[in-house]
Amino acid sequence: xxxxxxxxxILAAALVVGSVWLxxxxxxxxxxxxxxxAMQTVAAIQPDYQPWFGWVWExxxxxxxxxxxxxxxxxxxxxxxxxxxxxxxxxxxRKRSDAGD
Amino acid sequence: MHIxxxxxPPLHAAGWTAAALPFVIVSAWRVNRLMRDQPQTKLLLAxxxxxxxxxxxxxxxxxxxxxxxxxxxGLGAILFGPAVMALLGTIVxxxxxxxxxxxxxxxxxxxxxxxxxxxxxxAYGVLRGAQGLNAPLAVSVFxxxxxxxxxxxxxxxxxxxxxxxxxxxxxxxxFVKFLSVxxxxxxxxxxxxxLLTVVIVNFLREYSGDELQILKFPSPTVAVEARS
Lengths: 101, 228
Known about the structure:
Chain A is mainly alpha-helical. Chain A is built from 3 helices and 1 strand. Chain A has helices at about 1-25, 35-45, 60-100; one strand at about 30-35. Chain B has a single domain (about 10-215), classed as Arp2/3 complex 21 kDa subunit ARPC3, CATH 1.10.1760.20. Chain B has helices at about 10-35, 40-55, 75-80, 80-100, 110-130, 135-165, 170-205, 210-215, 220-225; strands spanning about 60, 65-70. Chain B has a two-stranded antiparallel ribbon. The chains are: A mainly alpha, B mainly alpha.
């Protein structure tokens, strides 16, 4: 499992790195969000459309990046806790059965 | 796939909210019952939600020179069934709408419908279908997560096309336009999401046999090991 998962993770990382490399060779590549591009497409199709409701709160850019990091950290923290906990549990079981309990 | 705040006309916003609401209510009821009947799986459910949380926070670059993010809802859908993911996905989207100005409250229904309902159901359906065709589990899981991710973005393109039909080519023409914004960027990211989901499932088959057995997740080898 370990070697296989390692290979899959390297493949995933290579895809992301390769994407940056290929993407930045394109002219005008700014790595803008596709969500934002879709909203620009709305403006292109219906130039007179005005969003009728604004964000309840829009964080300043620095705070937004912190909150994005917080979201990722919360997710990675809980996920990592679970994975570590299960691995330790399995190792504990193995040790006990080695001791002959 | 986040439709920005106010970017759906009121009628559409209300319609998608009404469509998503019953799924979220049923989901809350399902999660509640899961906690009561199978409390051993509580931690795994939190981990599946956490996976969606971290994956949907990461804006990844794509070959098109734009960025997008995966959804991470396929993992929970194949482990716990698609109904459970409506609630977890809604929690993610509310967090982003209120704190990150990402998505919105008026478009929450539409975004929940694409990311927390359509994506998970497609992922679950693909897993069942691939397993029915006797595909190896890793291949089934990969396809489920990847196609669930793509289905979410296809749904978003459909929602935008319905709200903003092209003056010349109508809803279909508009759908092609929105899909051509999302699909090329999303494709490599969907592959990444598929790979990461397989990594997690591989880990679960090795170390979480007891939980997978309770959930009857297709993993015969682990189930045998856990019994012996």
